Amino acid sequence: MKIKSQDILRIDHAMPTAVYKEQFHIVHHPDKYPVTDVPHRHNYYEILWFPKAEGMHYIDDGSFEMTGNDLYLISEGQVHYYQNVGEITGYMLMFKDVFWEDALQSIRNFKTSLFNHLLINVHLKLCDEAASDITDLLNTIVKEYKRPDYMGKAELMTSYLKILLIRISNFQQDVAMPSSHTNSNDYVLFQRFIDLLEQHFANHHEVTFYANELHISSRKLADICRLYNSRTPKELIDNRILIAAKRQLQFDSTLIKEISASLNFSDQYQFSKFFKKLAGISPVEYRVQFAKIDI
Hints:
The protein has helices at about 100, 105-115, 130-145, 155-175, 180, 185-200, 205-215, 220-230, 235-250, 255-260, 270-280, 285-290, and strands spanning about 10, 25-30, 40, 45-50, 55-60, 60-65, 70-75, 80-85, 90-95, 125. By secondary structure, it is of the alpha+beta class.
């Protein structure tokens, strides 16, 4: 299947209309999970949990084989679809950005640590014990979600979602690094840096901007980034810009000079030079190469 920009479906209206359901919605498919081979993106976040799964799941330009106990964290705007699917059962939980706006800062940090592909993979393979825990929790959420509406239900549903995010974060941290590392002030600064980067990468490409925003030196920021990601701040900044550029080249028909301007490059030449240095090919070559991929 060849992907063309006009084939990308934007789904902006799939959330239910009840007040608390404007923030999130959960569906359990115990028999057959509905999937599509049409590349599409959403204006909400998704947590997908597949205890049983066969096939391929494509997210942006990444591909993931599904074999069961697969957890996916899909950010708003990410393009995904499925191919060669066999048996799939599981859960789909969707929630909108308004959740982060209403949440405490401690909970908003999970947006940085979980829904940011600079830090972790969008795919987590859980062990049997973790899989059992996450399934039990999702079953509890589904059961409560299906009850008739009552006063305080919105708060309870939001609390369940917070618990789910905390549990997933714990699973991720168990694999990524010791808890002693993630409890430090430096880790908080690292999370803040990534959050700032997500907000400002298109307009600010300099390490000094982020260091100043965090009220630390550029050297201190470099030390923190190497500790938690093994990359320099500049490498993380450049990689985030590259991700945004690739997404537009893959799935939009935007002119390259317009992509260049949207990412605050002085001209198309500077953008092309930057892209080729990191990707190994020019933006034009990348767009043509991606269009020829037979998925």
